[in-house]
Amino acid sequence: MKKEQKKVKGKRKYTGLIYIAPWLIGFCIFTLYPFISSLVLSFTNYDLISKPKFIGIDNYIKLFTGNKEFTKSLIATLKYVVLTVPAQLVFALFIAFILNFKLKGINLYRTAYYIPSILGGNVAVSILWRFLFSGNGLVNQILETIGLKSVGWLSNPTAAMLCIAILKVWQFGSCMVIFLAALKEIPTELYEAAQVDGAKKWTIFFKITVPLITPTIFFNLVMQLVNGMQEFNAPYLITQGGPLKSTYLASLMIYENSFKFYKMGYASAMSWVLFIIIMLLTTILFKSSNKWVYYADEGE
Amino acid sequence: MNKKNTLFRAGCVALAMGMLLSGCGSNSGANKDNGDGNKDNKTTIRMSWWGNDDRHKATLAAIKKFEEKNPDIKVKAEYAGWDGFQEKMTTQIAGGTNPDLMQINYDWYQAFSPDGNGFYDLNKLKSIIDFSGYSKETLEPGEVNEKLNGISCSDNGSVIVLNKTTYDKFGAEIPTDWDGFVEAANKFDEGYYPLIAPQVEFMMINIYLSQKTGKAFLSDDGKIQVSKDDLQDGFDWYQSLIDKKIVPTGKEVLEIAGKSDLSTVKEFIEGKIAGCMTWPAQVSSLESVLEETNQELVVAKFPTIEGAKTSGIIKKPSMLWSISKDTKHPKETAKLLNFLINDPDGIKALGTTRGVPSNENGFKILKDDGKIDGVSEDLFDYVKNTDGITESPFFERAQISEVYQDATEAFTLGEIDSEKAAEQTISGIKETIKTINNK
Asked: What's the whole-model pTM score?
């Protein structure tokens, strides 16, 4: 009997591998291989056409000396992340909170609010965005009717950054859905108990709702941080990195260097620096999570 | 029960694996089709180009005609807009998956084929492709290292086109000199502009400089031939156009057009932007969007400054046709190319969507067919009969154009003065050329 069990166990080991084989094969071809080759290429002067030549860490040195373009681009990227991630999380949580009420036709609203996320940063949206934010576009018209001055959304460096940040915040849907699921998990008894004790709405929200969904906030925070650091579509499609390179985010710079300027080696080095920065930021978040994330099943 | 479950799972895995494998399988099958022809013995060749809608339609029509005449060949068309096309092409060439016949921009030869071996040598296909309609000068841009890498589609030189309807509306004459533009600008209402040059502001400065100095901005090996003082003067001159309201301010250009294609820009379609600096190959798409609202586009002479040393037209080779060096079907691809540049059906179908053909025979066919009239005839006359300066292929290389476009943007937004703009342009270009040559 025991022997038989062992046998099965041995076999099971491989069965498991077969089960995940489709994913494993895809991972090796589409993630692991490019990952390793980009690391190798970052130490070469590869230009896509001729054979790569090993040049040591020259690319990495060049990144932080010279005209500081890459540093500027990293700063722009961080600015973008600081602008978008908190705003998106707060906004998504707020909408999720509202959509969690039992209202008539609530599913319709849930779908409607999710749509921007499906649209993503595609070309049609970028044209819409240019249209809304152009000199005499809808946004400026509204600003003028309420007595404010119109803004050069696409020509002023600060405003252009805001313009693409708003696009990102607008796509809060996937965050919202995750929040919504978390909100539904919260046992209603807790709310009822609080209400009986006479707690106010805001107190309930901050003392019960928020602490109970901290794992979800943490998850969304990490995901959005990583996404934000890698943002490409909005600056590429709407501002093309301008004006005056104010929205020249790291991903856009990597893309232009590799496919437009044929500096694949240099661009690979950039991606690795970006990767390390993202990793560091994520690690910090994980370290900090001990202090503010509560798991319901903890301490039992 | 348990057994059933395991079976079910195994079935799922098998299905998934099957899908995965068949996915790979059909892919390699498709490649094979490209390579060895599929069941009904049709050879499939791939062809790619960039352009606007009217060029897409015309080219697809030409391909259809070609397939009718050559039932044994199937052409797979891959086309898109200009934006991002170079990047796509680069990945394809680097990965060896580029199409058999490709529309190429002239500055790409520098990167893709520095020694002339990056593309098929068309001289080897002379038995199929007839080059008799091409003069020596029109063949030159496609020659790298004595190998014919590409064949130019059309004669190309900077032109100014104007929206006559808007000019008429305000009772302004079509200008022939800069004073004429000033006059027009004065007659126009607020929000209307006689001219715009989004992304090619520096090209306008370059034209001004070529009139002033009689030289191209860059030499063939990438040396700057214009002095810093002249360049600074060029920036100041462009500012004077802004001050006189001939062109919108840098801020307005960003809001109106940004980097979008002018034929999709609202203000241009509405006639508020009543003219632009452009290239002949773009004119037909600009013309067609205006035609939809019954507006008329005319070719204007590029104004010359006093004491100009040249007419100030900048000539550059237009797009060229190239054949992949790895093509498995050089003969079929050559047939297609020959059809596009020499066969009356191909020429008529393409029309002037890539400019007026460099091929003299092609030009005659189009002219007899009545396809060359009005704007395209004026364009052809203007480009052919005006002396200008040929700009170095370095000039449009993305790395170089990035330098002067950044400087121009900072200057027109008032971030830096003309002296700084000139300095930044010169030092930036020198540095970039150095890194390119160091390769």
From this structure: 0.82
